[in-house]
Design brief:
Number of helices: 11
Low-confidence stretches: none
Strand content: 15-25%
Largest sheet: 7 strands, antiparallel
Strand order of the largest sheet: 11-10-9-8-7-12-13
Order of helices and strands: HHHEHEEEEHEHEEEEEHHEEHHH
Shape: globular
Number of strands: 13
Mean pLDDT: 93
Structural class: alpha+beta
Helix content: 25-40%
Distance between the termini: 21 Å
């Protein structure tokens, strides 16, 4: 952890560019500027008095997600998947009232979900319609794919699956499942829960050794482009696969954790060293960086 912080995060991530990824609203606006696919922004609530306009913002939307712009660890995210006569349906199936949502928005603005309890803004965005394969794999939540990108090269990846114990959140520290993915193919390598090797999803019993991520090359390309987008050299790109729009960038993390190594059964350091040894005067395209990573870090080379 200390080596990651000193040799990679501090060295390759200019401090002044952290706000681009620590603030989800800034990340989303930046992604739109660079034509990087991301869930559509439906509205932003910055002040308490704007909460009264919440119902107008969501209009007749059947589903949407509310997020704190500076939230950490998945805290404060509220996913609405439908409506009923007496309220809104959460991803867990529970029904909540408009009053409940407005109280949640108020808490976001007050900074309840930020690390420093600083005032925040609330983002309202389109609901992600996950593909059937992922719906079967995850419990009451949208699975995401974390890809570590170093100097623009995708070097390691994993699929994160929510569980009953993680309360539908794809957070490994809360009990979500991490499935290591082969960089060359997007196929599953190993799976872990609480850093222990598992072979089947703890809730559904579905085997985790036959997973293959669709549209994998485009997924890697989307992650690789986050380098040009942010100017950050060591980053975690979190992506999802939408049923209609395909791969989309969900958010970026300038301090990605190291559990991805356990999920892959492989260390990051040899891959990072391989990138550092490349000629710094040659600046390949995102497509070329993806091709290099797929050949250099595929299953046979891990």
């Amino acid at each position: 952890m200390n080596r990651r912080n000193v040799s990679y995060i501090s060295r390759y991530n200019p401090r002044g560019r952290y706000p681009l990824v620590d603030n989800k609203l800034k990340t989303k606006l930046l992604a739109e500027k660079f034509n990087v696919s991301t869930p559509t922004l439906k509205g932003v609530i910055r002040y308490q008095y704007e909460i009264s306009s919440f119902e107008t913002m969501v209009g007749l939307l059947g589903g949407f997600a509310i997020k704190p712009s500076k939230g950490a660890g998945g805290k404060g995210i509220l996913v609405i998947t439908g409506r009923e006569e007496n309220g809104f349906v959460k991803s867990s199936g529970d029904v909540i009232s408009t009053t409940h949502i407005k109280r949640h928005l108020s808490n976001i603005l007050a900074g309840l979900y930020t690390l420093a309890a600083a005032p925040d803004v609330a983002i309202i965005e389109d609901l992600i319609h996950t593909i059937d394969m992922f719906q079967a794999l995850s419990y009451a939540g949208v699975p995401d794919i974390r890809i570590i990108v170093f100097k623009g090269y995708p070097v390691m990846s994993m699929l994160r699956l929510s569980t009953r114990v993680s309360d539908g959140k794809a957070n490994l520290h809360k009990g979500a499942v991490g499935v290591g993915l082969d960089i060359a193919s997007g196929r599953s390598l190993h799976a872990i829960q609480y850093a222990q090797r598992i072979t089947h999803h703890p809730d559904s019993g579905i085997p985790l050794d036959t997973i293959a991520i669709p549209d994998w090359r485009n997924m890697l390309l989307l992650a690789a482009r986050s380098f040009e987008m942010t100017g950050l050299g060591y980053i975690g790109a979190d992506l999802v696969v939408d049923r209609n729009r395909g791969p989309m960038l969900l958010e970026l993390n300038a301090r990605p954790g190291l559990s991805i190594q356990i999920a892959n059964g492989s260390g990051l350091l040899p891959r990072l060293h391989a990138i550092e040894q490349l000629d710094p005067d040659i600046i390949p395209s995102a497509q070329e960086r993806v091709e290099f990573a797929m050949k250099a870090f595929g299953m046979k080379m891990s």
